[in-house]
Specification:
Blueprint (H helix, E strand, L loop, with lengths): L16 H9 L8 H14 L4 H14 L5 H5 L3 H7 L9 H21 L2 H6 L7 E2 L13 H12 L7 H10 L3 E2 L8 H6 L5
Parallel strand pairs: 1-2
InterPro entries: Adenine_glyco, DNA-3mA_glycosylase, DNA_glycosylase, Tag
Enzyme class: hydrolase
Pfam families: Adenine_glyco
């Protein structure tokens, strides 16, 4: 998983092999699967106040603890299950964040009933088309945008928790709703050329 020295990456993904691998294989690739989108909503909300590397290092444990982010199963987690998860050293043991995962799973079920799918609902914020940016430096990339502000407000209106505008924008970047690879990054043109909508 070690980086090839001749590849130029986004600045944030150059310090650890886990970040490099995630950047090279997932970050910015459009996601149109409800379970995967739910996973990324959870992981991005888990990051609040922490580094993304911390979350990546615990990702396998999260998948195990939260039933591979099966929306129906997580939605049914009991208070007893919450107490069990708070003893799990493999995840971030924050009661509010754990309860937010469960709350948000139930909100996803409501969204699926209202809109047909979480995919349909979330991608509507970008008119079902990835936003193509062309930032030259990581310092030019915004922490949030008007679109992420609107998404966050709408999610909150639908009962979601731990999904502020900055978290929503990080989520949008992760699942390819926006291409924020810098123009010098070897993945920039690759992501720009992707057209994965089913």
């Amino acid at each position: 998983m070690k980086a090839k020295p001749n590849l130029t990456r986004c600045q944030w993904a150059t310090k650890h092999s886990l970040e490099e691998h995630y950047h090279d294989t997932e970050w910015g690739v459009p996601v149109y699967d409800d379970q995967k989108l739910f996973e990324m909503l959870c992981l991005e909300s888990a990051q609040a106040g922490l580094s993304w590397l911390t979350v990546l290092q615990k990702r396998k444990n999260y998948k195990k603890a939260f039933q591979n982010f099966d929306i129906v199963k997580v939605a049914s987690f009991s208070d007893k299950k919450v107490e069990e998860l708070l003893q799990d050293k493999g995840i971030i043991r924050n009661r509010l964040k754990i309860k937010a995962f469960i709350n948000n799973a139930n909100c996803v079920l409501d969204i699926q009933n209202k809109y047909g799918s979480l995919t349909e609902f979330l991608w509507s914020f970008v008119n079902h088309q990835p936003i193509q940016n062309a930032f030259k430096s990581s310092s030019d990339v915004p922490a949030k945008t008007e679109v992420s502000n609107i998404m966050s407000k709408d999610l909150k209106k639908n009962g979601f928790k731990f999904l502020g505008s900055t978290t929503c924008y990080a989520f949008m970047q992760a699942v390819g709703m926006v291409n924020d690879h810098t123009t010098n990054c070897f993945r920039y043109k690759v992501i720009k050329s992707l057209n994965l909508h089913p």
